[in-house]
Specification:
alpha+beta; four-stranded antiparallel β-sheet; 6 helices; about 45% helix
Amino acid sequence: MDKRLVPQRIGSLILSLFIVWHAVGITVVGPLNKGSARDKLITAYGPYLNLLHLNDEWPFYAPNPFLGSIMSYKAVDRSGQTKTYPLTQAHHKLDHAYFRYTNFYVYLFSAPNYAQQRGYDKSVARFLCAQHQGSVREISFVLQKQKRFTPRDYKAGYRPTDPPFLDTHIFGPFPC
C-alpha cells in the first residue's frame, strides 16, 4: 500500500464515521419520542444534538403539525399612525446581534414573566425604538397564534392567517 494514501484513507474513514453518527442522530435519536430506546441513546448523542439544536421533536413530518405563530411589533409614530413590522425583519441574519435578539423575542411570548423580570421586553423595545430614529412614540409586541385549520376551512375560502384563525396577544405598549 502506498504510504501517501494512508492519511487520505484515514480522513475518509473519519468522515464516513461522522456522517453515519450524524445520520443516526438526526433520523433515529432526534425524532424519537420519550422512551427507553431514546433514553439509552441520548446519553451518547445528547451533547451533540443539544449543541446543534437537533434534539427537538419533528412534528412537521406528522399529519398534525404544531400550530404556528407570527411575531411582530406595532410602532405608533408621532402623528398617531400605526404600522406593523415583522420581528424577523428587525435584524439581518448576519447581524452580530441577530441570535441575541431572536432569543429575546422567543422569551417575550414563551415566558413573559421571565422576560419582564429580566428586562428583555424593555431591552427589545429600546432597540426597536432606536431603529426608527426618534420617529416612533411607542411600540407594542404582537403574537398571533394559529388556531386549528381544516381542509373544510380552506375549501370555504379561508386561509390559516385570516383573523378568525388567529389568537392575538398584545404585549406593551412601551414608550420610546
